[in-house]
Amino acid sequence: MSHGDHAVFVIDDDKRVRDGLSELLESRGIGVTTFASAREYLEAPKPENPSCLVLDVRLPDIDGFELQARLANEPHPPIVFITGHGDIPMTVRAMKLGAVDFLPKPFRDHELLAAIKTALERDREARRDRSILNELQGRLNRLSARERDVLPLVVSGLMNKQGAAELGISEITFQIHRGNLMRKMHADSLADLVRIATKLGIPITHSRHGN
């Protein structure tokens, strides 16, 4: 694992913990940046590569749970909590909000390393998913207004005649729009188009007219 293909951020107000984790991770070829507070982390520039956040629960400014809540509505590195004051309710709370792991201090090196590996892989997958979704959204944005009207009708299983009746246009016009949207969405089949529509969150209903 090279430093350039990932980033691990450690937030802990104890310098001994920061230094110890830096030494451990660097010795395993894991790039790490440390912060003494959540505010330092929030204000720091972040690289555009898979990341992980190793986060202490008790911090001097914003505690770990509050930071987790602040980050919840935006893409952010998966979180591995570490704490010297953990209990079962805290663990449950952290995991419900999406944390990868909740490690009580002192923890074993292999436990932290395994959690970081899982977090980095989760972030790689999330970034791939966002990249695919952005590409599909770009295709959707290239559709005309009428092609956008046609799309949910097609993926809901309506035949050309039925879709044309829904929109009050001729069957041949509906066919033309259908062909255009298939091309613009890079869909090779109806099944392919349905998969794309599902990823984009386009409502798919059962045909109201049957076949």
Would you give an account of this structure?
With about 210 residues, this protein is of the alpha/beta class. The chain folds into two domains: about 5-135, 3-Layer(aba) Sandwich (Rossmann fold); about 145-200, Arc Repressor Mutant, subunit A, CATH 1.10.10.10. About 55% of the residues lie in helices and about 10% in strands. Helix 6 packs across helix 7 (about 160-165), helix 6 (about 145-155) crosses helix 8 (about 170-185) and helix 6 packs across helix 9 (about 190-200). The model has no long low-confidence stretch (mean pLDDT about 90).
Short description:
This protein has nine helices and five strands.
Tell me the Rg in angstroms: 24 Å
- Structural class of the helices, strands and pairings? alpha/beta
Instruction: List the strand order in the largest sheet.
Output: 2-1-3-4-5
CATH homologous superfamily title of the largest domain: Response regulator
Give the biggest beta sheet. 5 strands, parallel
Instruction: Give the tally of β-strands.
Output: 5
State the helix count. 9
How much of the sequence lies in strands comes to: 5-15%
Query: How far apart are the termini?
Result: 54 Å
The proportion of residues forming helix, as a percent range, comes to 40-55%
CATH topology of the largest domain: Rossmann fold
Shape: elongated
Low-confidence stretches: none
Highest-level CATH class of the largest domain: Alpha Beta
| Second-tier CATH architecture of the largest domain | 3-Layer(aba) Sandwich
Count of discrete domains: 2
**Helix/strand order, N-terminal first:** EHEHEHEHEHHHHH
Mean pLDDT: 91
